Each structure stands twice: as structure tokens, then as C-alpha cells.
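User: C-alpha cells for this one?
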Amino acid sequence: MQGATWSVILYVLSCLMHQACLAEDFPPPCDSQIYCTGNLLHTVQMAKIFEDDKHFVDMGLRDSPARILKKFQSLSQRSKGDVEKLKTFLNTSFTDPGEEFEPWTPTDWHENPDLLSHIKDSELRKWASELHLLWKSLGRKIKEDVKVSPDRHSQIYVPNAVIVPGGRFREFYYWDSYWVINGLLLSEMNSTARGMIENFLYLVETFGFIPNGGRIYYLRRSQPPFLTLMMESYMEKEKDTAFLRENIGTLEKEYDFWMSNRSVMVTKDGGNFTMNRYYVPVGGPRPESYSDDYELAENLTADAQQSLWAELKGAAESGWDFSSRWFSKSQPNLKGTETKSVIPVDLNAILCRVENTLAKFYNELGMGDKALKFQSAVRQRREAVNSVLWDADAGVWLDYNIDGQTHNREFYPSNLSPIWASCYTDNNQVDRAVAYLEKSEALKYRNGLPTSLSNSGQQWDFPNAWPPLQHMVIEGLEQSSSTKAKEIAFSLAQKWVQTNYEAYKQYNAMFEKYDVEDGGKPGGGGEYEVQLGFGWSNGVILQLLDLYSPRLTSASALCSVSLTLLTLPFLILTVWT
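Assistant:
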């Protein structure tokens, strides 16, 4: 009881000192007064003891939260502002990040998956073998202590081992795992892939949705909803109808979360449409980026601070943290982030594909009424996407701002995501979208599709290119009936494979993002250094090598970035012979 009393006192004190009492509409990121809110979090993060704020909130506790808080309160009274004593407190009260995991090697990994035998280019085949090997280094198993003593960890317990992205992302992440799972399935690691899907199903049953990642400070925001599509990928390999039947209700439960908590009615041209957005009405700075968020909002009113922090979490939920895509026209910078006003093309395309997949699943299970429900949802989604997001003048789908009632006319690869999701009503739209892509100048870069054409300094903007966006565009164009679209798809795949290959040869590493202007160079910008590992990068490359196995070449990756007119004909001859 005494520890609980101290917790309450400390929370009240932190509210008074830092205006951290959140309005009823803005709860904290989670209930922990160490990892998500309170004076201890504020003091440590603003002292900037660690280069990355995420380091502190990934540390484990050596004692109960109540005793740690009491110890900190005593320290604050005796040694306020003494950074060295604060460091000593941290060293004696917390464990290092990563100690919540135990050594683990995937039991279903084997040396020669069938994928390798189909890759014609010998250099790419050798590289694919090395990427296949990387799954071992990215595997993690959570210690039983996280399950037994969850209050001593920010790590969320899941029962099965996971493949993590890499670098500072030492836990599982939601949408990253879609491309990781697709890569695992090509590596014939079906058991590991199934285990990850089971983890996500467990999270839906435990929390009602899937958090952004595997930490409690992510517990009130999600990421793009790929769980049903993970199951689709797994079912294509395993045809496990019993597994699907057992979990179809959980897939629908996650879909219901998005429809109940992330939907909004949009009125356009006399029609009313239910559509989805990223929306996280949660206050306080993001714990993993606390000092950045706190300083960004420092000169704002208390209400404006909470609103901005909620908008930043909404952008983080999108996976695009951060991008000019979410900036308001009146304040085109990070302070002007207004995610909840945007109806994103890609989120609605993803949900369209989810609805179509759920309809297919229910049909396969002989559950006709449920199948009809989702067939109707697909029809409504297609109508909404094409009534609200399709721009006839641009010839493509564009994000729609519900406050300004205007389209965002900037280029983003996500503008083409309805092709990937088959969420369109007229085949002519594909041809028009391909023409839009050709006119956009986004195809002129030798290293892939830029995330935007705006160089804002944010990582989800120019000159960065991101693996999931490359894959969604390539897969969408390739599966269309347009010959031109298929040609562009292969060209983009060739560029992306060579970009990743050049960087791998130079750094012996895979990165989370790449620079479209400089061959073999990882991306940059944003609030942390580029990370290597890297889960979804490996998965996307394995998928492209599988899709275009007889055609892709490593040849031009061995050439100089700067090609003269004299060397270009030789390069062309080399590639085609």
C-alpha cells in the first residue's frame, strides 16, 4: 500500500511540475509511471544521458516499480540536478536493453531453400544465400521473466520467437513483420512465420488490436493493418484450413478495431462514405522520442502541446514517421503535423484488400453470410476510394484532407496502392495511374522510387526510398493486365535489387532505407541514424528475387555510378547478354 501511495504522490507532483496531467481526451501512452508518464521519465529523458531516448524506455527494472519510484523520489529530494547521481541511480536500478531476450536460433532454418536454385545470376544467388542467413541474427525469444514479472519490463510478452527489424528496433514491429513473414516463407521457415502470426493473434485477443511494436509505450497506437494479409501469405504456402478456421474470428476482431476506432464519415460531392484514417488521441510526448517531442512543443499552450503530441503519434501509427505528407499547408513542418485530417490512400487500400481477403477466407470456410458481409464491404470501399480519393485531373488516387476538403497533389508511391489492393472500379484507372507515374519524374532516379519529391529533412521524404513502398508498387504493377505497367514493375525491381546489392557489397549490411540519388548509400534524415539489419529490406529483396528470378542481374551494380556515353553501350551489352 505504501508503494502505491508513493506512486500516486509522484504522479501528482510530475503533473504539477511539467503540466503532464492529460485531459480526459488525452490519456498517456500507457499506464506505467516509469515508461510512459511521470517525473522519472521526464527527468531522465530531458537529462539526455543516452544518445537515443529509446534506450532508457527499453531498460528493465531491477526492483518493483513502486520501490524504483520511491528510490527516485528520495534521490530527487537529495540531489536534484546531479547528473552523475542520476546515472548511478540508473545503473543500479535498471538493466541494459536487450536483457529481456534469451539466445535463440530458428529451428526451421536450413541451408538451401528452393528459392536459391531458381536465381539465375550467380552473384545474386550468393547474396540471397547470405540474406537467408541473416534470419538467424535477427531472431529473438522473450524470456519467461517478462511473462512472470511484466511490470519490470517495457517489453510486451508474446509466446513465440520473433524476427526483429534490427538496430534500435530490438523488438517486433507490426507492419515490418508482413515483409519479414513473406521472406521467411520463401526461406521455407514456415514454422517461424506461423509463430509470428500466432503472436499477433495473441495480441489482438489480449489488447483488442495490435500495437505499433512490442513495447508497452506503443499500447495505444497501432500500425498499418497487415495481419489478415500475413495469414493470406501463410495460407498460400500451407493451405492450413484448420488454422484459419480457428483464428478467423480474431482476424475480424482486428478489422473491427480499425472500423470502430479509426473510421470517419467523409462527405464529398453529395455522397457519404465511411473511410479510415490514422488517429491516436493520446497525449504526452512519445516515450521513445520524449525529448524531441517535448522540445518541439515547448513554446505552445498546454492544449496545443497535447494536440501536437497526439498528431505525432498518429503519424507514427501510419509507419511514415515523419513526412511532409502529414504537414498542414499553413505550417509545412513537423510542428504542423495534422495526421487525423488526412484520409490516406494506402490505409484505405490496405483495408480494401483486407476486406476482400476476409470475404475469400469466409467463402473457403463455407461461411456464406460472413462472406457476403465482406463482399459488400469491398464494394463500399471501392466506391469510397474512387469517389473520395480518385482525382480525374491527376489520373491517380490522392490523399484527401477532410478539413480543407482538398486533395494533396504531391507525389507519393502510396498514391498507386489501390492497384496493389485491386481497389479500383475501372481498368482504365490503371493505365491512367501508370501515365501519372511516368509524368511524375519519380522514375528518373536510378536507385528506386523516392518516398516523395519534397526534401523536407524528414526520413519519409526525398531522397529516401523505403522497401515496403517499392514492393507494393512493383507487385501492384506486375499483377495488373497492363504491359506498360509490367515493364515499369521489372525496371523498378531491377533498380531496387541493384541499389540494395551495391550497398551490401560496400557495407556488408542491409539498411532500413536507401538514397535514390547516390548508389549504394543508405538513407538519412529524421530523428535517428539509419538502422541496419534489416527485416523488411531482406524480405522485399527475397520476394523480388523470387518474382523475377530468371531476369534480374547484378551486372550494373559492379559498374561506376557515373556512366559516360562511351561506357553505356558496353553496359547495355553486358546486361542483355
